[in-house]
Amino acid sequence: MAMERVEEALKAYRESVRIDPHNALARYGLGTALLARGEAEAASHELKDAIVDGLEVPLTFVKLGIALRMAGQLEESREAFQQAYDLLEEERSQGGDIRDTCYEEIITLLGLEQSRRAYELVDGLQGDELDAQAVAELSADLRRLAALGVSEADEVLRRLTLPPGELIH
Question: Contact at 8 Å (CB) between 1 and 9?
Fold first, then answer.
């Protein structure tokens, strides 16, 4: 997936899930690959299974929120984004480093229609706070949200000046 070879990733994740149907990371990987391919309903199914199998982390709920929104399930999408937000708040209250979860928080805030807070977070990023992979993933998910009518995602993209690995304001 990191090399954007989605079809190969799909094949590998499907084989992993076939071998171990309760492997939460394989389910998550399959879900994100299906999401990248635009198969929203199949992606949401895999992401839900990843959560059931124990991968209850903000990023899983972020991807689920996007997949559900793509599938037209807006209320369920909002619930997934709210769950991601709650988990992020829990991590923050336990002393977690917000820089480690800023990608998830930006997408979550947009999913919850809190664009002003998302803009503030993006504007406060330093160039080394997201690695190249996180920048690429954030950009892809922002484009997905923009295509789904979340116009604020375009503004966040505008504020993120790439090349990968650098954020220039």
Answer: yes
Per-residue pLDDT of the chain (169 residues; tens, 9 = 90+): 878 899 999 999 999 999 999 999 999 999 999 999 999 999 999 999 999 999 999 999 999 999 999 999 999 999 999 999 999 999 888 887 666 688 899 999 999 999 999 998 888 876 566 677 777 788 889 999 999 989 899 888 888 755 444 443 3
3-state secondary structure the chain: CCCCCHHHHHHHHHHHHHHCCCCHHHHHHHHHHHHHCCCHHHHHHHHHHHHHCCCCCHHHHHHHHHHHHHCCCHHHHHHHHHHHHHHHHHHHHCCCCHHHHHHHHHHHHHHCCCHHHHHHHHHCCCCCCCCHHHHHHHHHHHHHHHHCCCHHHHHHHHHCECCCCCCEC
